[in-house]
Amino acid sequence: MSQPLLTLGIETSCDETSAAVVLAGKKILANIISTQIPLHRRFGGVVPEIASRQHVKTIVPVVEAALEEAKVSWSDLDHIAVTAGPGLVGALLVGLSYAKALAYSLELPLIGVNHLEGHIYANWLVHDVQFPILCLVVSGGHTDLIYMPQHGQYEYLGRTRDDAAGEAFDKIARALGLPYPGGPEIDRLAQTGDETRYDFPRAWLEPGSFDFSFSGLKSAVLNVINQQRQKKGLALPLADLAASFQAAIVDVLVAKTIDAALMKEVTSIYVAGGVAANRSLRQKLSVAAQTEGLEVCFPPLELCTDNAAMIAAAGFYRWQAGDVANLYLNATPNLPLASWAPTSG
Ligand code: KG4
Ligand code: ZN
Fold first, then answer.
1. Tens-digit pLDDT profile for residues 285-318
2. Which ligand is in closest contact with the Cα of 305?
3. Among 291, 297, 288, 290, which residue's Cα sits nearest to residue 270?
4. Ligand 2 centroid from CA 313, angstroms
5. Quick one: 294 and 311 in the same domain?
6. Is residue 212 assigned to a domain?
């Protein structure tokens, strides 16, 4: 069987070992995700050494399972795309070393993908994306507003100055005694909470700024939690705290995203990263966008968090543009999202 344009994607940047087979950067034939969340949960967060060791254990069976599910063999593959950063260096190195060994032995092109661009390209797996677009990337490590006039061009409009949105969710969840990862727990609790009970601060920063800051909000919520704890015998109003905290984050994300879209005169907004799974963000951003006549698109829930299909999709477009790596490709924990396509005109 000959399947042209078949990409094997590999992702091991944090606590998910994932391998995917994707056709033409679009059609997912397999997307196997082995999550380590249960292993890290008792430590309240990801333990890098445990993550690396677990990736070593699971990478081979996960890749083999992806090939089996896709019903393809090694010789059907056309390229290998792998996350090169940002992420935990030990975790990244597992996927990267395995991808390099495969590329060498199968004599296939190796494509290094930035994890954040992977999140953005998750949208290509499900939407018919038309440039130019505005991307809101909200993950455990990043909160970025990025203008994309075409494939591989990333113009930063704003980013977080301290905590990322997902990081803030995880830290507050931990303070509330909720398990890791905290984002989904806060999302669930907030469903039954009163978001107006606590008026937590929204950091708008200087007028016109598209940067974010969530550390002041985090301190304000922690103060309320501590005050409540001092009132002995009273249980924490978990749902109201979760809802009020979530509303403070979501309000700022929504307002700045809409402003940035209007400023850049784009008609489509694409959201990416783990926090894109948040129900309140999905709902409030959709309503605000509709009011302004803008289209807003989210990946389906299973493609919001870390997975290798998104890496294969991004890798496919890099490969199409001739952006192929060599076997010296290294893991870069703080890899910036740099453009790889030349500016047109
Ligand atoms: O993109 P991702 O899987 O990994 C990184 O690249 O960081 O994002 C993980 C982050 C975690 O902070 C997690 O708490 C958050 O996404 N998250 C959520 C939700 N689902 C995952 N945050 C808020 N609401 C959710 N439903
Ligand atoms: Zn991620």
1. 999 999 999 999 999 999 999 999 999 999 999 9
2. 1
3. 297
4. 14
5. no
6. yes
Ligand 1 pocket residues where CB is under 6 Å: 14, 119, 139-141, 166, 169-170, 181-184, 187, 273-275, 277-278, 305-306
Domain identity same for 100 and 169 = no
What pLDDT sits at residue 343? 74
- Long-range CB contacts (within 8 A, 24+) of 101-107: 102/8, 102/63, 103/327, 104/327, 106/74, 106/75, 106/77, 106/80
Is the domain of 68 the same as that of 155?
A: no
Structural domains counted in the chain: 2
- The reported pLDDT for the residue numbered 323 is 95
> Which residues, chain by chain, have CB under 5 Å from ion ligand 2?
139, 306
Q: Which residue range forms the structural domain that includes residue 62?
A: 6-121+304-320
Q: Is residue 171's pLDDT more than 50?
A: yes
